[in-house]
Amino acid sequence: MQIAGKILTSGSLDPLIIAEIGVNFYDIAASRGISLMDSAKLMLREAIEAGADMAKFQTYKADKIAAKDSPAYWDTTKETTQSQHELFLKFDHFGQDEYEELAAYSESLGAPFLSTPFDLEAVDFLDRLMPAFKIASADITNTPLLQKVASKGKPILLSVGASTLDEVRSAVRFVKDGSEDIQICLLHCILNYPTVKENANLGMIQGLRDEFPDLPIGYSDHTEPSADLLELVVSVLLGACVIEKHFTLDKTLPGNDHYHAMDPDDLRVFLKQMENVRNLYGSREKTLLESEVPSLRFARRSIVTSKPVAAGESFSEENLIMKRPGTGIPPTKLGRIIGTQSKSNLPEDTILQWDDIDSSGD
User: Fold this and answer.
1) Residue 197 Cα distances to 24, 264, 326, angstroms
2) How many CB atoms are located within 10 Å of the residue 30 CB?
3) Which of 42, 44, 229, 321 fits as disulfide partner to 306, beta carbons 3.0 to 4.6 Å?
4) Residues 256, 64 contacting (CB under 8 angstroms)
5) Is 355 in a helix, a strand, or coil?
6) Which of 73-87, 261-275, 318-332 has the weakest average pLDDT?
7) 236 near 245, Cβ under 8 Å?
8) What single DSSP character describes residue 60?
9) Which residues, 6+ apart, have CB-to-CB distance to 73 below 8 Å?
10) What DSSP string describes 89-155?
11) Are 54 and 80 in contact (CB under 8 A)?
């Protein structure tokens, strides 16, 4: 499975990084007194320049995503809107023309465009603009949407927050029933805004890898970012080959998706952390490194006389000891040395060489 030029393979230390702009550009626009389109482009550019492989938006219309009496399920001390419909209504001003403009701008930055569709019409017009589809956790049982997305035949990133393993299996089967060739990447996710660290359950990444060994596994994170982005680093070490995280230019802004988002500086920290991890990981092939040669020579042991040995005297366990450095006959040859004789008088603490041995082997 390949997206944005990266092969999605669980265990990779170079994950696909998706900066989830979502609808945060609305608040950035208001705070900076710029248009929605300028704000969306600004955030897109900042995300790519900071190192994201792609940025993602959300495409919905309030009247198609939530009934008017849908209650809030987020932290209302951070986002005070009490109705889902009311909240979505604030952020559904973009339509097909705007997303086409954003897609073209994203391509001009060298990054593929991505936006999560939340209704069937959005699937149709986004299909021409994106190399893959992202399906939100809440739609894992939305079979009409799954079927519509699957019909496009493109790779699917499927978040599995707030679902059971049976529901994940069912969604995968449902998508694969449309075409066995459709590529799916499952994203571990906890559907809390924010997710407290003790609920992150990053071990689920390994559980998903065990349950779905043929599918790449990623991570969609909703924790408040730590200074060292350890939560993202650990997720990659556990096998996440995709990292998706909300993105903002100002984490102090009110609203649902700013306070637990990463900003450009956070993204740069994460990328630096992953560079450090890759440097530390190196290679899984067990070889002798050139830098280890001095240690090999001087920290290993040789066969050494533990007392003076006269010419013609036999070597035995009583007059030999294993000591550093490893510049003489190695201990692995002790069996060949025992019982042979010394060519000359050897003082105590002589590092034996083959020339010291009378009738030595090869």
Assistant:
1) 23, 21, 50
2) 13
3) 321
4) no
5) helix
6) 73-87
7) no
8) -
9) 84
10) HHT----HHHHHHHHHHHHHTT---EEEE-SHHHHHHHHTT-SSEEE-GGGTT-HHHHHHHHTTT--
11) no
Beta-carbon count within 10 A of 211 CB: 15
Closest CA to 193 of 81, 113, 85, 116: 81
Start-end of H helices in 132-263: 143-150, 165-178, 203-211, 230-237
Q: Which amino acid is at 134?
A: K
pTM: 0.90
Report the percentage of the chain scoring pLDDT > 90.
93
Backbone dihedral angles phi then psi of residue 123, each to the nearest 5 degrees: -60, -45
Residues 6 or more apart in contact with residue 203 via CB below 8 angstroms? 238
With bands split at pLDDT 50, 70 and 90, how would you rate the model's confidence at 6? Answer: very high
Distance CA 77, CA 71 (A): 15
pLDDT digits (tens, 9 = 90+) for 162-218: 999 999 999 999 999 978 899 999 999 999 989 999 999 999 999 999 999 999 999
Please give the Cα distance from 304 to 349 (Å, whole number). 6
Helix-, strand-, coil-residue percentages of the chain, each rounded to 5: 40, 20, 45
Q: Nearest CA to 161 among 133, 197, 101, 201?
A: 201
At 353, list the tokens.
């060489």
User: Which domains does the chain carry?
Assistant: 8-281 (3.20.20.70), 291-358 (3.90.1210.10)
* Distance, CA of 106 to chain centre: 23
**Statement: residue 360 has pLDDT above 60:** no
User: 């992202």: which residue's tokens?
Assistant: 134
Closest CA to 194 of 332, 43, 74, 97: 74
CB-based contacts of 266-270 (< 8 A; 24+ apart in sequence): 266/225, 266/229, 267/17, 267/19, 267/47, 267/50, 267/51, 267/52, 268/50, 268/51, 269/227, 269/228, 269/229, 270/17, 270/229, 270/232, 270/233, 270/243
